[in-house]
Amino acid sequence: MRPLAYTRAATAAQALQACAQEGAQSDETAQGAMFIAGGTNLVDLMKLQIMRPHHLIDLNATPLADIVVSDSGGLRLGAMARNAQTAYHPQVQQRYPLLAAAILAAASAQIRNMASNGGNLLQRTRCTYFYDPATPCNKRRRGSGCSAIGGLNKYHAILGASEHCIATHPSDMCVALAALDASVHVRGPAGAREIAFAEFHRLPGAEPERDTVLEEGELIEYIALPDADDLVAHSAYLKIRERLSYAFGLVSVAAALALDDDGRIVRARIALGGVAHKPWRRPESEVCLVGLVPGREAFGHAADLLLEGAVAQHDNGFKITLARRTVVRALEAAAAGTQVAHPGRGVAA
Ligand code: SF4
Fold first, then answer.
1. 242-286 pLDDT, tens per residue?
2. CB 123 less than 6 A from any atom of ligand 1
3. Rounded to the nearest whole angstrom, what is the distance from the C-alpha of residue 107 to the centroid of ligand 1?
4. Is 144 helix (H, G, I), strand (E, B) or coil?
5. Full-prediction pTM beyond 0.90?
6. Which is the closest atom of ligand 1 to the Cα of 129?
């Protein structure tokens, strides 16, 4: 049994102060202080002794759960708002149906009720070796090796991987946030800063233990969504998985289009999940669609650009074909018109 200190912070300032006194880490496998929100991933990792904080700073009493329209006309999603609360919020349902669909494609109703928005961004990979302390894993312990390279790697990355780690990021919500050009607002010992969503998660490189660019002791306060009303009518989140619920995606796609009165594409957004250490976007794959009439050929070209440089591991060559087809299907679904996800349902009991 290891002793564990626990602080229930009433404000973000109190949480940061408790953290600063300990020297905290917010997303690393370290022994210091850590923030806890819904705990839906962290508690599992603590039970397995993969994450071993000696001080938990509980954020559940902090006033970081608001979802409000921002001065610029976008939306602020509080870090402590629950995933379900976010997906069913009227502003999200009406103005960001892509985000609502992505959240509701994830996990189970019970987990969505508990998991926080900030925690969703900081969840760790579901690489099975990461969760098995008996096996080498560079993300768990740098320099120990990667069991997935040469091991079972059906669920692993085809883009942006390194010789040190081929894990994928597991979030659905983050794929939509990437497509919607969100930004992450954090506060830490050096003050507040804004991080573009595309920069928030890292590729593994030589430091696979670092999932994000968060510095020690930094706390996510809220996620900002820019106004994206032009994308409301034509968006789709398509997730391909081995069973229809409560499963991580093999591949997922967040796609959104803005069309002019002649039906031509004015703006396109495409993000891929399940294929890399972070949601995968490439501006060329979006720019190439501008001015075109939606169609399979144009969408296929966009998918090819998005997947350029994809490299398969032993077990996941199918993902390259699957990802291309899923991008095309998601863009076709977006062009056909947004399907409303679970309208009128509240937070599940
Ligand atoms: Fe660890 Fe990454 Fe290799 Fe999985 S892919 S075993 S998380 S280093």
1. 998 889 999 999 999 999 999 999 999 999 999 999 999 999 999
2. no
3. 22
4. coil
5. yes
6. 6
